[in-house]
Amino acid sequence: MKRHNFKKLQIWNDSMEIIDQTYLFTCTFPDFEKFGLRTQMNRCAVSIASNISEGSSKRTDTHFAKYLDNSLGSAFEWETQLIVAYRQNYISEEIFKKMEKDINTLQKKISKFIDSLDI
Q: S-S: 38 plus which of 26, 48, 83, 103, CB 3.0-4.6 Å?
């Protein structure tokens, strides 16, 4: 297997955009969420990209797929946290809809990438 350059993977670049957007809107959360939902969402967003990059270092597509599965799990976890943030009125409907669309697109791209691997 040829190792993937994670920086050239569209799924990694898309996940970096999720991170940027997450940090932008979580800084507006109430102060009492500083060590709660704010931190959890930021860490979860970083986990999506981190698992893609870590997995790209593995010698086989089977091992890479495991990390991509973890990344996909983090993407679904992050979506749940997005829903919580919206239901608690921490973000506007406009931000919610945009980010929900972005995370759903990323989830589909990660799934298709996993399916494309030689496993």
A: 26
